[in-house]
Amino acid sequence: MVTASEVHWTFGLRHSKGALGGALLALSCAVLLALVGGSAAFGATVYVPDDYPTIQGAVNAAPAGDTVYVRAGTYYEHVTIKKFLTLQGENRETTIIDGGGSGNVVYVYAASDVLISGLTIRNGYKGAYLCRATSGSIVDCNVSHNYRWGIDLEYSPHAEVRNCDVSDSYGPGTYDGMGIRTWEASHSVIEDVRVFDNKGHRAFCPYWSSGMLIKNVELFNNAGGLFPGYGSYEMVNISIHDSGYGLYFNGASGGSLRDSVIRSVDGPAVRLTWYSSGNVIEGNTLESNHVGVTMDYAASSNVIQGNIIESNVGIGFGGGPQPRGNRFYHNDIIGNGVQVSETPGSPAIAAQVWDNGYPSGGNYWSDYAGVDLFSGPSQNIPGSDGIGDAPYWIPPTDPAAKDNYPLMRPWRADLALPVDIDIKPGSYPNSINLGSQGVIPVAILSDARFDATTVDPYSVALAGAGVALRGKAQNPMAKGEDVDGDGLLDLIVHVETENFDPGTFQEGFACLEGETYDGQLIEGWDEITIVPPEGDAVATDGAASASTEAASTSDGQAPDPVVTVAIDAQPGSDPNSINLGAEGVIPVAIFSTDTFDATQVDPSSVILEGFEGVAVMGIPGDYPAHQEDVDGDGLLDLVIQVGVINLNPGAMQDGVVWLAGCTHDGQPIEGTDAIIIVPPEG
To answer: Which residue of 68, 484, 545, 563 sits 20 to 30 Å from the alpha carbon of 188, by its own alpha carbon?
Structure first.
């Protein structure tokens, strides 16, 4: 039986002019007639070891167009193919050709359309070597532990390498130890390939191979990186990490790197050198490397746009002939130790272009401190436009070293704007009880570049927990207030604690995520102390301390962890105004939930953190407390009347009132609510 693939390879024959071409054409026609008639004398399959004990024996015997099918096993030999064949292994993990530490394990020479598939090719000088082999393919193979190069495409245009793992090339020389090397293999495709654990300076080195597509390739744990040279290369969805460097353009021009991630490499993530020009570096994430993008030795007219360049030395310029005319715009340049640097004695920053004009704009710089009150090419027309009113000056202070139109927000829609937050404003440490079922306040802080009041409270989540939709009129517990005293309104949200995801806490920090009303993602971090839901660890911030004191036992044993509860100062009132000069009482509701019964709170234990000497007052010997369903959820809450005569205004915590106490059986509780302070005079 002739398979569809055999038909494909039959008509993959290349025909040339002249008598030979005519003979081949006649042969193809004869094959077609045979196929139509239901039989074929061409495109048969021979089996190893069934028909021939060695792979080379089967290759030698098989006519052009046949398939040599190799059953599972380890074959210690070197295979040379000089005609159109398919070499097919039974299973890439168990069908192994081992070169015994020398020679070319699989060598294809001067043959077109050869397919090598389903094999492990290992332990040679070179692993899979295509030389002058047009349109050859290496598919679904493991190529490992070869001295010089794992896969080599030499003078082999239109070749394909797909779905392969190439690893552990180990030679110590400058040009040894490569995973993949190409030389004059133009218009070839390298796709869905992993290159790892290679010891040479260049893990993947395509050279003199213009028009090559390199796509969906991962490089990791290599001594080197991806080293395209002297050609044009389209590189898409490349992942490079934990290696000596990322990607070097070495005399490569007219190519591109798009939609890729380079992270945690020892050297530059992307380097353009040796007259590389006209390349486009777009839509990539270059994070936590030694350098994000570096240029030297006359790299010119390259475009670097729409990238995230974060937590590196951001952009660097080296020596040699000065790089010139490279354009940087729409990049998010964030939190780098140095945003832009240049080699002393080789100034280059001022020779580049740092924006794309108006209104397209420049880059987002995380350390830009400007404001956006004006618009227009000269930024002198009232009204914001998302572009800073003043340029971003890039040290050193050369008049030309500037981004004329710095962006106020990150360019990448998938990149969260970093913001400052304060969990439990005014409290340290910020204790969070993973077993509590109340709420905690979190302040999102405004600055000159960011208005926190534009954040949609419904979008906010802290460690996976959203805002509490409890309280007055079932609205999110959020308000605008100047928490840090900088004259700008911040946003305080109250976040439910019962839905915290402990897996999201990272080394004592919690992440807040959300977005503004116009869709800008935000992200902020603050330090926290975890109080487990069970056991004897307790929080140590102010409210928790008060609760701990209220719940201490006479034998000195540690009390239970604090339960965070929802409270409402002055139920039914918004805002909750407290007069510092008053001498009466204010009502405070402690809410019940499905898992917490507020009526079990001991009123005599209740204090308000930040109020010194506050007593629960009423009829002598009694505590003015009553049970009432305050929030209409069908559960009885506890309303207590708290005396305000002994308020200490100096202890008020930025408009947040803290309640602490314990239940009759000794369970400590805490809760918070937003308040507005009314001074005693004025």
So the answer is: 68
Q: What is the pTM of this model?
A: 0.68
Which ranges of 158-278 would DSSP assign to H, the alpha helix? none
**Residue that is last in its domain, among 244, 271, 298:** 244
Q: What is the DSSP letter of 45?
A: E
Torsion of CA 617, 622, 624, 628, to 10 degrees: 160
Q: In degrees to the nearest 10, what's the CA dihedral of 112, 118, 119, 120?
A: 130
Domain that holds residue 253: 248-367+406-415
Number of domains the chain contains:
5
How many whole angstroms separate alpha carbon 107 and alpha carbon 112? 13
3-state secondary structure of 68: strand
Residues 494, 558, single domain; the answer is no
Model confidence over 423-436: pLDDT tens digits?
988 777 777 777 66
Does 324 lie in the same domain as 360? yes
393 found inside a domain = no
Element (H, E) at 22: helix 19-36
Euclidean distance between the first and the last CA atom of the chain, given in angstroms as a whole number: 100
Question: 634: which residues sit within 8 A by CB, 6+ positions away?
Answer: none
> CA–CA separation, 389 vs 372, rounded Å?
5
Cis status of the peptide bond prior to 49, with omega within 30 of 0 = yes
**Do 309 and 322 fall within a single domain?**
yes
pLDDT band at 93 (very low <50, low <70, confident <90, very high): very high
Tokens of 341: 């640097």
Model confidence at 375: pLDDT above 90: yes
Domain end (from 415, 444, 479): 415
Cα distance between residue 590 and residue 600, in whole Å: 10
Q: What is the CATH number of the domain that holds 661?
A: 2.60.40
Domain co-membership, 176 together with 204: yes
